[in-house]
Each structure stands twice: as C-alpha cells, then as structure tokens.
Design a protein that fits this description.
It is a single chain. The protein contains 12 helices and 20 strands. It has a 5-stranded antiparallel beta sheet, with no helix packed on it. Strands 5, 6, 9, 10 and 12 form a 5-stranded antiparallel beta sheet that branches. Helix 3 packs antiparallel against helix 6 and helix 3 packs antiparallel against helix 11. The longest helix has 24 residues.
C-alpha cells in the first residue's frame, strides 16, 4: 500500500510541480485548520457544478494551484510573511565566481555584529556512485525463463527486486524493464540504458553523493541470498562499480574541509553550492552585498516570480476561456502600480509582464534617502499579489470552465457544505490510481 501511495505522489510531483520544496511548504496545524475553514466558508454558498472530468482541464487546475503556490513562496522568501515589515529587506550574498561557488544568505536579517567574508578554494566536487553493467547485444536472454530477484542495499536499507524473464525476451527488453522497475521504486537510485555499437548496458547512479566515514559504497547489489532465482547480477554485471562516490574537498579560509554533498551551509550564515573546481591557488570570495544591491536583487526576484506566474497562466489562454479572467485580474493589479514602477525602470508589457531596466532600478535605489518609503508601493504590490495567489491556490476551480447545475437557496435557513466543489484538484491526483 505504501509503495502504491509513493507512486501516486511521485507522479504528482514529477508531472505537476518539478520544483524544489521550501520551508514555506510545511505548515502548522493551525495553518491547515485555517485553510480548511476557508474552504468550508467558500463552499457554504457556492453553486453546484458538474464534476470536471476532462484530463486537460484537470491538469490546468492543478498546474494553476501549483504556480500560485510558487508565487506565494517567492514573496514569502522575500519576507512577505514576516510581521516586522521586512518585506524586500532580505540581505543577499555574493560570490566572486559563481561558476565555482554559488551562495545565498540564510542568517538573521538583523545580525549582531559584522558578517565575515569567506574564502573558498574548491579542490574536488562530491560525486555519486555509478554502476555500469555489461554491454550486451540485442539478442535472446541467455538465462532460463523463471522468476529472478536481486537485493539492493542503500543507506542501511535493503530492497528486493523480483521480475520474470520470459521465453523469448531479449537482453534489451529485460534491461528496459529493470530501468522502469528501479526508477519507479524511488529508493535513491536512478537507472538508465547506456548504448555502444548496438549493445546496451544497465547504468545505475545514486541520487546522493559522497561517503560517510564508515562506508565504502553508497549502494550494493547482490543476489547471493535472494528469495528467488539468482544469476542476474552476474549476467548483467550489476555489481560493477564504474565510478566510486567521493566527498567534496575544499579550503575554507585556508583550512581543509570535506563534505559528502556539494550543497551545504556554513555557520548558519551562508547556503553554498559548489559548482566547479578552482584554478590552482585561486580562491572564491563570499560575502554580503550592499543594501542597494540586496534590495535590487529582491525586486528583481519579485518581478521574476510575478512574470513566471503570468507566463504560465497565459499558456492556457487558447484552451481555457476562464484563464483570460485570471490574467486580466493579475494584470489589473499590476496596472494600479504601473506609474510608480515605470519611474523606477519597471515597464508593464501588453502581455501583463514586466521588463526591468536594472541600471535605472539600481540608480533609483542608490539615490533614495529612505528605500522603505521610496519603494513602499512595491510592498503594497507584493502584499496584494500574496493575497491573490493565496486565493487562486485555495480555489483554482474558480478559473475553470464548469457547467452550472443549480444555485443554493439564498433564503434557506441552512445550506450544507459541499467540501470539494472549490478544491476538486485534491481528488484529481488519484483518478488514474483508484
């Protein structure tokens, strides 16, 4: 049962929201209760509609909800959920060479004392383990027809894979089936086929990188003690390690350090992503940008989040008539603030997106005596977008073409709640799995 549910959610996440999750995607019980109460309130007097069964419409509703969530998170990352009026005041980090090290600031927005600058020299990147099997011709499998199995050990967890080899199956057909079997299992390995001169090999790569102090491999494959017929590990060469996992090695302010991942934090101040190896004796400097640069980055990030949402919504204009209503509502919000934003280098296009003249924006920020007061309209713009994105996320069905069945009686003493009318996308995830 748990494996089936994993498959459902993996399909949902890979199909509709291939985006990294943030801390704003976790919620307290009180926040979830607030969402539930909002849904109940929306449904209390909502009309009755026929259920949505069209696949493209269902995809649109889920996609709309997820893009609204993404816009919400963009504003939240800029301080939009804080109560201390810190919206757009988030500090930004810089890296002197982002082809080697990328950095972002994760410390307090009101740090005590001066934030130190760091020097990094990357000597090697953390790498994943790769197993590459034998390159076999596309001929009939040389193993006898039967049910086979092999065991995979990953991070102290053991998994058994069972599969059947038929009478006339070829090497490639079995390899392709193993690729699907392993990828659908979601155990931390990715499988693919490697091809060379008409022959195919099964390639297995760990999703994680690096090794702990007591480990020599991230994963192992064996069939010496498996429950079904053995022999596939030797036949396909699944246990051959073609690339060993390695830790990242670097110098931090001249001190040698290692990390099992290329992505880590330093002193609860900087989130660091190693992306390349440093030239000999060349260091990358990491530190905080000036307030002018940080504010410019925040505004650019806000406008990018708004533009991404508008472009995503506009892709459905030719297929979903109600998407025009959504685009017009967001464009209407932007139009209210258009005059002030144009004077700062942000221009509204006919499609409802913004272009940014970064030099003009940076100049406007640097010439301001009080950034907070000068750009107060941007905070109002962000707050309005946040409320609107929450509304869309709560009720994406408001922008879906629906067939009205009946209005509820406005003078009835009591109207019963229909809890899924405005949030039908919650059931759409499971339509193909029930």
């Amino acid at each position: 049962m748990s494996m089936a549910l994993n498959t459902v959610y993996n399909n949902y996440l890979s199909t509709y929201t291939p985006k990294a999750l943030t801390k704003y995607d976790t919620h307290k019980k009180s926040e979830l209760r607030k969402v539930y109460n909002s849904i109940v309130k929306l449904n209390k007097d909502a009309p009755w509609y026929l259920p949505t069964t069209n696949k493209s419409t269902q995809h649109y509703a889920v996609d709309l909800k997820e893009n609204a969530r993404d816009l919400h998170n963009t504003i939240a990352q800029l301080g939009g959920l804080e109560e201390d009026n810190s919206l757009l005041s988030k500090k930004s980090a810089y890296s002197s060479d982002e082809s080697i090290v990328k950095a972002s600031y994760i410390g307090s927005q009101k740090p005590k004392g001066e934030i130190p600058e760091l020097q990094l020299e990357v000597r090697s990147l953390a790498s994943s383990q790769e197993n590459l099997g034998y390159f076999l011709p596309n001929e009939k499998v040389a193993l006898a027809p039967d049910t086979y199995s092999f065991d995979v050990g990953v991070n102290d967890m053991n998994y058994e894979f069972q599969f059947t080899i038929g009478e006339s199956e070829t090497n490639r057909e079995v390899q392709e089936r193993l690729v699907r079997l392993i990828n659908n299992s979601d155990i931390g390995l990715r499988a693919s086929l490697a091809e060379s001169e008409g022959r195919t090999s099964l390639r297995l790569t760990s999703e994680s990188t690096g090794l702990g102090s007591d480990r020599s491999q991230i994963f192992t494959i064996t069939d010496s003690h498996t429950s079904k017929v053995s022999g596939t590990v030797d036949y396909f060469g699944l246990d051959y390690v073609s690339r060993e996992a390695n830790n990242a090695e670097f110098l931090l302010n001249g001190e040698e350090r290692t990390s099992s991942s290329n992505h880590f934090t330093i002193g609860k101040l900087f989130d660091v992503q190693l992306t390349g190896i440093s030239p000999e004796d060349k260091t990358v400097q990491i530190g905080l940008k000036t307030d002018v640069e940080s504010f410019t980055d925040n505004v650019t990030h806000l406008i990018k989040g708004y533009n991404d949402f508008m472009r995503a919504a506009s892709t459905y204009l030719d297929f979903q008539s109600q998407s025009k209503k959504l685009v017009q509502e967001f464009k209407g919000i932007a139009t209210v603030y258009q005059p002030a934003m144009e004077s700062m280098g942000m221009n509204l296009t006919e499609e409802g997106t913004f272009t940014i003249n970064k030099d003009q924006l940076r100049r406007s920020v640097s010439q301001s005596d009080n950034i907070g007061e000068t750009f107060a309209y941007l905070k109002n713009f962000s707050t309005t977008l946040l409320r609107k994105s929450d509304q869309v996320s709560l009720n994406p069905m408001d922008y879906v073409d629906k067939t009205l069945v009946a209005y509820k009686n406005p003078i009835a003493s009591r109207n019963y709640v229909s809890p899924y009318s405005t949030s039908a996308y919650t059931g759409m995830m499971f339509n193909s799995y029930c």
